[in-house]
Amino acid sequence: MLNAFNSFLNDLSMPDRDMFTTIAPMGWETCTPLQIADFFAYEAMKESHRFEVHPLRLKRRSLVELMDLHSVQGRGFHLTKHGITEMKKGLEQELERLKHL
Question: Judging by beta carbons within 10 Å of its beta carbon (0-12, 13-18, 19+), is residue 39 exposed, middle or buried?
Answer without folding.
Answer: middle
